Amino acid sequence: MEMHQVRYFVALCETLNFTRAAEACHVAQPSLTKAIQKLEDELGGPMFSRERGLTHLTDLGRLMRPHLEAMYEASEAARIEAQSFRTLEKANLRIGAMCTIGPTRLIGFFKTFRARVPSAVLNIHDAPGTKLAEMLLAGDLDAALIALPKLPDRFETLPLYSERYVVAFRPGHRFEAMEAVPLAELNTEDYLNRVNCEYPEYFASLGIPDPAADCNVCYETEREDWIQAMILAGMGCCVTPEFLPMIPGIATRALTQPEISRNVVLATVSGRRHSPALSAFVTLARRHDWSS
After folding, report:
1. What class is the 3-87 domain?
2. Is it true that domain 91-161+263-287 has CATH number 3.40.190.10?
3. Sign of the torsion formed by the C-alpha atoms of 32, 36, 37 and 39
4. What's the pLDDT tens digit per position in 87-132?
5. CATH 3.40.190.10 domain span(s) along the chain
6. What is the rounded CA–CA span in Å between residue 142 and residue 68?
7. Smallest Cα–Cα separation from 212: which of 236, 179, 235, 228?
8. pTM score, two decimals?
9. Which of 61, 71, 112, 259 is 20 to 30 Å from 288 by CA-CA measure?
């Protein structure tokens, strides 16, 4: 069985006229008739009957029609998707990026994607991790760059890189003389609470209380730039991801006792069909060198 035979069969089912079916398939009628006869020989009997100039499906034809139509539709879908992938027609790709994930480790990948798929437009949506998970499940995002200790079971994740949590402080602070800052050292410090950061969830997953709980919390805000400006002004310190961009002058030391890190992953919804642009995005992410 060949796909052109299936295509002719589907056209003949729709028109019930050999001449019109041949015209729809852009072939001569004898060629279409011969292909249908060959298909009937392969399937074991006539699938069309012509009586007094009328063409209609036989019992075998009616039995075979849904199967052959499904084959034709699958073939067309594969052809269209392959063509779209080759040309990668202009498409908007909606990518969520957790608001606490800095661009430092991502810009190189985005640049590579742009070079390989110049027709695609990346729309980056910035939000807390739990919000991005909801948007991804709802179909409002195609994929998400996310770092949470637990994600919904429906997500398929591609690990990209890990980063430690560090303590950020002003120059001249006592932490500057330390190689690393034990968690307990924060208890006596003025603390600036980054409201959108997910690190309390990582502490909770290890059975450790939120470090801000025992600190003297002076300010809370969703704005990273405000937190960093306050650090430079000597108004307190904070726990922050290692690769979050910092205002020049801010010092950091690794957080220890315990040392905690998070995994940044590219999340998609398992079983959901990928567009050609998203397929290219995931493929390139899998091949990218995330070590630098």
Report:
1. mainly alpha
2. yes
3. positive
4. 555 678 999 999 889 898 999 999 999 888 888 889 999 999 999 9
5. 91-161+263-287, 163-261
6. 32
7. 236
8. 0.66
9. 259
